[in-house]
Amino acid sequence: MRLTRITAHSFRNLSPDPVSFGSGTTLVAGENAQGKTNLLEAIALVCGQRSFRRARPAAMAAGEAGFRIEACLSRGQALENLAVAWTPGEGRSFTRAGKAIGFREASRLAPAVFLSPEHRELLTGARAPRRRFLDRLSLFCRPAAGEDLARFERALTQRNSLLARIREATGRPAAGELEAWTEEFVTAGAAVRRHRRAALEEWAADFAPLCREAGAEYAAIRATYLCEGESEEDLRSACERLSGAEHRRGHSLAGPQRDDLFWERAGRALAETASAGELARTTALVKLAEWRAIARASGEAPLFAADEFDAGLSAGWAEAFIEALPPAETVLLTTASEPGRWRPWAGAVVEMRSGRVLDGPRAVDEQGVWETEKGPAKMVQG
Fold first, then answer.
1. Are 23 and 330 in contact (CB under 8 A)?
2. Which CATH number is associated with domain 121-299?
3. Pairing mode, if any, of strands 91-96 and 99-101?
4. Which side of the chain, N or C, has fewer Cβ within a 10 Å radius?
5. Could you tell me which residues are beta bridge partners of residue 96?
6. Radius of gyration of the chain, Cα coordinates, nearest whole angstrom
7. Percentage of the chain modeled with pLDDT above 90
């Protein structure tokens, strides 16, 4: 899949002017706070993903009316026109050629992997981002995962609503209602767990060799899916055991919504033993493996984008990362450093200034100078 154009309306500080991309690697350079991250964030949203900065939609909208992002994608000989819009009254909506679709369909139509400094929370932060990582892998690696995940989310919502009514004594559910939703919760929840574990194994087949290539200290890193069993009987028994506590607290205390992904190295928690640099490098390996797993499962090359790709990396590691970039049709890298140093790897370099990409992709000469029709223009210094 290749991203050919994106247009953002009322999204953060981005200009509404269309931004076009060529094939291969494009380096988006510029000083901080010029909109580089906003551009990648807009692309992530139209690809059916969340903000990697965990921003709420209202915080991303430049005005009170909301925002709209449109993208043109090339898939072989076919062109896809996708759009995502958000308004305070209606929330988020996706369209394909003007027709409404769900975010899961948008994700399948626009497979993409994003890497940002915020993704280090996959190794050290709360559980929710790690579960989303597993579910995103599942959507591509397991054909039935999307439907099972939707079933589970619906059952979880209904079950929690019924448990809240019991806790608040606002009226007990109708006879058998909680039991029926619990059974749906159990069936779909066990399926979600199976999808997650299978997708993790697919990903690990790519992560392990990348770690071995990175060195002995990375070869020992493992990711383990933590859950209380995977069968329907395991989950059903957990619900029965915790039913009293669930009635008192008003929400489900067992299930995939509480599972985790545990990172370890040589038997010790990675977050407790790794340096900041090691965490940054490991996160990059995680995302490179994610790209490979999704590419193999989907049969096409996803978009790959890395925000501030060289931040927190030594010069040697930054070069190793850029040399390991996947063979995607669209690779986008942002940097606040001097872009001339990355000239051997970038097919095109653009400057980002005040939310606007200047003149689209242009070639860069050996001195890191943009070549324009009106003569060379010096790059913005980071």
1. yes
2. 1.20.1050.90
3. antiparallel
4. C
5. 82, 99
6. 23
7. 81
Is the CB of residue 152 less than 8 Å from the CB of residue 186? no
What per-residue confidence (pLDDT) applies to 170? Answer: 65
Is the pLDDT at 16 greater than 60? The verdict is: yes
Among the listed residues 83, 131, 89, 121, the one whose alpha carbon sits nearest the alpha carbon of residue 103: 83
What's the token pair of residue 347?
């097919």
Asked if the 1-111+301-382 domain carries CATH number 2.40.128.50, the reply is no
User: Two tokens at 382?
Assistant: 């980071």
Helix axes 145-168, 177-214, angle to 10 degrees: 130
Nearest to 84 by CA among 63, 107, 114: 107
**CB-based contacts of 368: which residues, under 8 Å, 6+ apart?**
338, 339, 340, 341, 343, 379
Q: How far, in Å, CA of 16 to CA of 8, rounded?
A: 5
Task: Write out the H or E segment, with its range, that includes residue 283.
Answer: helix 276-298
Tell me the per-residue pLDDT of 321-352, one tens digit each, with 9 for 90 and over.
999 999 999 999 999 998 888 888 888 999 99
Token readout for 260 is 């985790």
Amino acid found at 217? E
Do residues 349 and 357 make contact, with C-beta atoms less than 8 angstroms apart?
no
pLDDT tier, 355 (very low <50, low <70, confident <90, very high otherwise): very high
* Residue 23 in tokens: 């094939």
**Cα gap 381→370, rounded to integer Å:** 13
Q: Of 158-162, 232-236, 370-374, where does mean pLDDT reach its minimum?
A: 370-374
Look at residues 25, 31, 61, 26 and name the one whose alpha carbon lies nearest to residue 45: 61
- Of the chain, the percentage scoring pLDDT greater than 70 comes to 92
pLDDT in tens, 270-279: 999 999 999 9
169: left (phi over 0), alpha (psi -120 to 50) or beta: left
Element (H, E) at 123: helix 121-124
Does pLDDT of 229 surpass 90?
A: no
Domain range annotation of the chain: 1-111+301-382, 121-299
Gap between the Cα atoms of 214 and 224, Å rounded? 20
For residue 139, the SS3 value is helix
